Amino acid sequence: MATNRALKIIFLVLIGSTLRGYGQIDPLWTRDTAFVKQLYVLTNKFHSLSLTGYLQVQYQHADSSGIRTFNGGDFAPASDNRFMIRRGRFRLDYSGQTKDGDNRYSFALQFDGTERGVNIRDMFGRIYDTRWHLLAATVGMFNRPFGNELIVSSSMRESPERGRMSQILMKNERDLGVMLSFDPQDKHHKLYRLRLDAGFFNGQGLAGLAEFDSYKDFIARASVRELPITRNLRLSGGVSYLNGGIVNEKAEKSPRIYYGTDLQLSFTNPLGKTELRGEYVTGIQSATFASSATPGILPMDKNNVPVPIIARNFDGAYLYLLHTVRQKHQFFVKYDWYDPNTRVKGADILSGGEFGEADILFSTYGIGYANYLNENMKIVLYYDHPVNEMTGISGFTGDYKDNTYTVRIQYRF
Length: 413
Prior knowledge:
Layout: H1 2-19, H2 27-32, H3 34-45, E1 49-62, E2 81-97, E3 103-114, E4 117-128, E5 135-143, H4 164-169, E6 174-182, E7 194-201, E8 217-228, E9 233-247, E10 253-269, E11 272-287, E12 310-325, E13 329-339, E14 362-374, E15 377-388, E16 404-412
């Protein structure tokens, strides 16, 4: 009974969303059936409701079985190829506006479903100031306001995955917290192109089930919307800052401090559109000996004793070069690196020493092609070639064989 009612409500909402552009429902219908009366109520109540989503299905082949990779997650020990649903997103947005068309509030709820299960991705509310139309406050689970690659939707990003650095420092991109934004809505406002975001977040994001210490991450970003430099040249960019930390085995705070800058440049020319994007991040990352990734849970050994936390100086960057022809064919190359410990080189990393795999520098080269079949579907071909520095650790005395080939098809509505 409950299932039938839920299906009926979903049907009503979908039909209501479809009919909302046609004005009011014929009053003869509302007079004759209770069903259409409910439909009439929903089309009016949810006039600002939108449903969107996308599905990414892909086939991957790896250089060897069981590789560890940041291109979609590690392969199974006996497998060097796989089909997988990389992302299956469904998002609901509900928003309200003033009679003049300015934003008043919004709510977003997004889920991700794959063959491995269903998880939350976004759940937040946002309130806009309706007096000056300059400020907005956001609370809930949403993207951290740091850099450019983190905040670009996976449905819009050209490469199949974000860079190694982004995945290690801020796994799953999102976190639970509160943020205040300076975001002018009036395009004629003299500061319209400027956006400022600042907020406090738990720190572990979707990598863990709940906050495990008392320390919060403060994250701030100042960015400039796309700015015309010449008739064909446009520029945008920003600077970002994170100051936080995690509790260590001594019940003290181990720091996490990041400084970032990013730049995006686009040039329209007779051959199409050419874009250059880059981002650089440096700072201090606190994690364990075995991994430089931000912990999602309090790190413990097999005896349930907290393991030591190590603070490392790091830096990393990525660079995209893209060219799009006739808004249909897109060719791109990507380079990124992540050095988790800038104070050591490969020759210092030895088996049984004070440094380990988590200190190894990786550079990744990628090349891809995307065909936009229509406004709802695209196919991506991508080759990913990570290169590690040479060390004295078994498996990394040469280049670890972890190249991957990806064929992806994406549907979006």
